[in-house]
Predict the 3D structure of the following.
Amino acid sequence: MMISILAAFALGMCGLAWAQSAKITDKPSAVEAAKRYTKGRCTPRAPCTFRAEREGKQWRVWVHLSKRDQARAGTPESERYIILFFDADGNLLRRIEGE
């Protein structure tokens, strides 16, 4: 019984620590939230650039995705972007994609 209580407490504390790390309080934490969201699309061969801005009670992060042409040895082929909107808790509220 005591082990179950301790295990539940430990899991609760881990969840609390994870929730606190997901909070967005400044530009670097907004960029980190965007990086978590785009981790499959941003790679060393196709890097992304990030720009964060506070908008009222939410954060807006522009993610510029560059698609690389392997035949031209790393020169940008086309530029795409995603605008991500996060609340202060790090939840994605909305996303807009464009070219």
Observations:
- The first helix runs from residue 2 to 21.
